[in-house]
Design brief:
The chain is built from 18 helices and 23 strands. It starts with a helix and ends with a helix. The strands form seven sheets. A seven-stranded mixed sheet has the order 3-9-10-16-13-12-11, with helices on both faces. By secondary structure, it is of the alpha+beta class. Bound molecules: adenosine-5'-triphosphate (ATP). Adenosine-5'-triphosphate binds near residues 248, 260, 371 and 376.
């Protein structure tokens, strides 16, 4: 069922101009996608929602737009040159490449799945009297599966922490993990693979001229910390926000735009007094969850603490979303300590500190980071919104419609203007006149092709919150029919009210007020 939704979602994106595979005429480029006419609008609206929630709603957060190319030493200081690796393993028979940790994680999921199945079976058997917690803690088979899964999980975490590639291989062998497609267990050794893309600067030869495409936007913020603090005269605590492209040479890029090799991040680094970081970490956890909840039902979101902290973090949590393929990371919130500013101070020789007038002392601020993938947010919004339902058609018969129930503020097109008939000059002229006025307020679409019912369906499929129809009555009394996407309710209103009604109900302000 969920798999089915995912397939439908991918084909809907292509069919309706949201997302195309990159370089499709050359059979595509793995892990890279292009956004089409409606996709770019939705993506821009997501970015605007984030930017306004950060920059407009917080006096102490300002934005920047730093370059993708940066001095190569930045990636040395940040730890990316030495530690931004994933463990890679090849299957010698199928010649397919995998992430060793993901193969093991999938095996853990399978074990947990078996335990869940036992619980499900027992629940059916015992009916209302079933005590799940009791069953989980006493049934020998369930205990065997869960204990084994937990042991493997722990061993995996330790091996990852210790960079013990040999143990990852040993786990794979001991569990008898096979290539999921070919079934072969003929594996190579596990080795570390650095995820940064590199290129060469034209005026410097050799290693010295080696540049990286940034794997995260955060470092552009850290190295501008002093610039921004000076020019904005912000006092601690304050934040710097940035939206931009990031590049990662993912070993396996799949699940559509969930894991891409070129993607976009929306990141905010919040600089705080040392010792107050946990307080701010908790504040930002709540604020970010509120931002998500304004556009996503509560049951589709949850926090997941990291079991394995990155070298720079003293606390980290993911906000997970219930994607069609299960709960997965949508956003990360990390308490990054003073790791980044201290490393850059050390390697660059420039002190990156703040003079706190209240304490009358210099210190290196601690940082709380919020980082959400724009493309993952896009996928989450579409997974929430895509609905197929049975509704009565104009004759009252059952018909199916595909509708994108996007938050109106995020919808690509806000209002469609439809003349009832395309071969009646007066109707077309009037509709054009109305369209030409409305386009000053928001993105509208003029459509005169096919019966009105089909035009409604086309707008439903791209998530347009309002359609207005111009008919003969419009010519007499300047009223139009306005139809709302979700309820499909139609109402006759004066033409002069359309801009106000649509603006009021599609305004980003509505979302921002919900978060506050
Ligand atoms: P994952 O564990 O899924 O690889 P990550 O923990 O490496 O993600 P971060 O480094 O915390 O991710 O990046 C912050 C955000 O950027 C993620 O929460 C995600 O939304 C987004 N992101 C990271 N990698 C990708 C990718 N390859 N494609 C699309 N979005 C990504």
């Amino acid at each position: 069922m969920q798999e089915d939704l995912f397939k439908r979602l991918v084909s809907h994106c292509k069919e309706y101009g949201f997302i195309y595979p990159s370089s499709e005429v050359y059979d595509g480029l793995n892990g890279v996608y292009d956004y089409g006419p409606y996709g770019v609008e939705l993506k821009n609206n997501i970015k605007e929602y984030w930017w306004r929630a950060m920059v407009q709603m917080h006096e102490n957060i300002t934005g920047i737009d730093s370059a993708i190319f940066m001095h190569p030493l930045i990636w040395k200081a940040s730890g990316h040159v030495d530690a931004f690796n994933d463990p890679l393993i090849d299957n010698k028979d199928s010649k397919k490449r995998f992430r060793a940790d993901v193969l093991i994680e999938n095996e853990i999921d399978k074990m947990m799945g078996k335990a869940d199945k036992e619980v499900e079976k027992a629940a059916k058997r015992f009916g209302d009297s079933f005590d799940e917690a009791m069953f989980r803690s006493t049934n020998p088979r369930v205990l065997e599966y869960t204990q084994k899964a937990e042991a493997v999980e722990k061993r995996l975490a330790n091996a990852m922490k210790a960079n013990d590639m040999a143990d990852l291989k040993a786990i794979i062998e001991e569990l008898g993990i096979a290539d999921p497609d070919s079934g072969s267990r003929n594996w190579t050794e596990v080795r570390q693979f650095n995820l940064m893309f590199s290129t060469q600067m034209s005026n410097i030869a050799g290693e010295e001229g080696k540049l990286y495409l940034r794997p995260e936007t955060a470092q552009g913020i850290f190295v501008n910390f002093l610039n921004v603090q000076k020019t904005t005269r912000q006092k601690i605590p304050f934040g710097i926000a940035q939206i931009g492209k990031a590049f990662r040479n993912e070993i396996v890029a799949r699940q559509f735009i969930f894991r891409m090799r070129e993607f976009e991040q929306m990141e905010m680094q919040f600089f705080v007094r040392p010792g107050t970081e946990m307080e701010w970490y908790n504040t930002w956890k709540e604020r970010r969850m509120a931002w998500h909840r304004a556009v996503t039902p509560e049951e589709k979101l949850k926090f997941k603490d990291h079991d394995n902290l990155a070298h720079y973090a003293n606390a980290a949590v993911d906000i997970q979303f219930d994607f069609p393929f299960g709960f997965k990371e949508l956003e990360g919130i990390h308490s990054r300590t003073d790791f980044d500013l201290s490393s850059h101070s050390e390697l660059s020789g420039k002190k990156m500190q703040f003079f706190d007038p209240e304490l009358n002392e210099h210190y290196t601020p601690f940082v709380v980071e919020t980082s959400v993938g724009c493309d993952r947010m896009f996928l989450a919004m579409l997974s929430n919104a895509l609905v197929e339902e049975t509704v009565p058609d104009a004759q009252g018969e059952d018909s199916s419609r595909t509708v994108l129930r996007l938050a109106p503020a995020l919808a690509p097109v806000k209002c469609a203007v439809l003349p009832l008939l395309k071969n009646k000059e007066e109707l077309v002229g009037k509709a054009r006149e109305i369209f030409d006025k409305l386009k000053f307020h928001f993105l509208c679409q003029y459509d005169e092709k096919d019966a009105v019912g089909r035009r409604y369906r086309r707008q439903d499929a791209i998530g347009t919150p309002y359609c207005i129809t111009i008919d003969f009555e419009t010519l007499e009394n300047d009223t139009v029919t306005i139809r709302e996407r979700d309820s499909m309710k139609q109402e006759r209103i004066p033409v002069g009210d359309v801009a106000r009604i649509v603006s009021e109900n599609t305004d980003m302000r509505l979302l921002l007020e919900q978060i506050a």
